[in-house]
Amino acid sequence: HQKLPDTLTLILVKDAYSSFTRLLEAYQAFRRPKPGVHPTAIIADTAVVGANAHIGAGVVVGEFVKIGEGAVVMSSCSLADGCEIGARTMLHMGVRIYHDCVIGNDCTLHGGAVIGADGFGFAPNSENQYHKVPQIGNVIIEDHVEIGAGTCIDRATLGSTIIRRGVKLDNLIQIAHNVEIGENTVIAAQSGVAGSTKIGKNCLIGGQVGIIGHITIADGTKIAAQSGIGHSIEKPNT
User: Fold this and answer.
1) How far apart are CA 219 and CA 237, in angstroms?
2) In the predicted model, is pLDDT for residue 54 greater than 90?
3) What is the pLDDT of residues 91-144, one digit of tens each?
4) Average model confidence (pLDDT) across the chain
5) Distance between alpha carbon 44 and the CA centroid of its chain, in Å?
6) Residue of 1, 177, 214, 231 marked catalytic
7) Which of 201, 199, 205 shows the shortest CA–CA distance to 220?
8) Closest to 118 (Cα-Cα) out of 65, 162, 176, 169
9) Are 134 and 113 in contact (CB under 8 A)?
10) Catalytic residue at 92?
11) How far is residue 51's CA from residue 41's CA, in Å, rounded to a whole number?
12) Which of 31, 42, 82, 126 is most buried (most C-beta within 10 Å)?
């Protein structure tokens, strides 16, 4: 190795990028908002706020909401009746969580994300008018999920739209009603997944990918940017 100046210290690690990430995480922890409830927050009497949580300015927390220990809900977020936010989860400014949706532990939702809006369900009649189909399910997001700014995940018509543990969704993604996304799958910006499609675990999906509804994407599938997927992919690791 080249000799370093005496003013520098060399730290040898097996994985430089992973170790660099750990250092950034430590730095970011210093910037995490302090526990407490801002006086302008509106919190229903039936809501439960865990120890050491942060509730920012202008936050609205509905009836029977549960906010986990150490969670951070930043300014102007809205949590509708009956939703749950896990321990240490961070909701950045302007996140909207609709009623009865469940967010796991150690998740991050960036500004403008909308979780639990109605699925896009309309039934045409004989006059070609569209009658809205009620969407009475919810969204379940498991632990260690990150959701980018402006991303929308629709509630299920019946049952649940499910985002499994470790999934990473970029900005401006649309996930439709009753979709399921498997563990540790990563989807890049401006992609869209239509209703009731099941995506496996450990998939890598590029930007602006469109996936039709009611199909299955096998585990480990890699989809290039701007692809259109119109049928199931049954062979894993394709």
Assistant:
1) 6
2) yes
3) 999 999 999 999 999 999 999 999 999 999 999 988 889 999 999 999 999 999
4) 96
5) 24
6) 177
7) 201
8) 176
9) no
10) no
11) 17
12) 82
